[in-house]
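Appendix B, record 7
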Amino acid sequence: MEDRILGLHHITAIAGDARRNHQFYTDTMGLRLVKKTVNFDDPETYHFYYGNEAGSPGTILTFFPWAHVRPGSIGPGMATAIGYSVPAGSLDFWQRRFEEKKVATGPRAELFGETYLPFRDPDGLHIHFVEPKTADNRTPWSTKGVGKDEATRGFHSITLTLKDIKPTAEILTEVFEYKLLSQDGNHYRFITDAIDNSAIVDLFEAPGMPPGLNAGGTNHHVAFRVKNEEVLMKFRQKVAARGLQITPKIDRNYFFSLYFREPGGVLFEIATDNPGFAIDENANELGTNLKLPAQYESMRTEIEKVLPTLG
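Structure tokens (predicted):
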């Protein structure tokens, strides 16, 4: 089991205003800001990590908030919808909360026998809360506004939209060891039995859909989880053997990563559990301090002047 893909590690998206993003995910959604750092390639831009209390893999949604980013749109070759697991019976609570907070929602629907509530964040990112068939027993992060009986448990699934699902399905099944579980119209559900949650990838086949634009309100990449660096490099060999270009190992401070673009066009990352988010902050202080990559520490004063206050 330990040398396998362990479901989703994190998902990274693009946002606009940093304050608005922070308010929505910590207040409206009730997630914990696990890490407040900066973009490795653009240190004058935040990189936010939201998740559960410990910042467990499979709960982490991250953002690059660029204040003047143009609005994006979804299309083939992109991750197009993030599914969060919520407790059975909690969708009424979330419907009321979103109405109070003036969050745009769609009608409840059913896919693969599970009820979900679709909505969009302030930048237009597509998210849906799912009441899974099997109870998700992960311990949630709860707040004054969102209690433990309603709080999100972490990722349920990620949806990838593709012109043709076959090449992507081959990577999922032949390299990542996922299996096709079921089909619902043009949706194909793939799942791994290596983990009990954050284990689902849904492929949506849309051959006639126009191209999207990877900008504000869209997903940048999807990261899959492995135990450690040894397993990470085994997967590097497997991906390279398929003739796909894959990066060298990259140190992201809180995990080690590889990146490659799967044949359908979606940017995939493979990320390790180690060393985790508590490497530079105590568990009870996660997200309270601005943590900079070592190469930018000497620029702290200048960076802090540029970054917006979150209030």
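Remarks on this record: Residues 229-241 form the longest helix (13 residues). Helices lie at 18-28, 91-100, 166-175, 229-241, 300-306.
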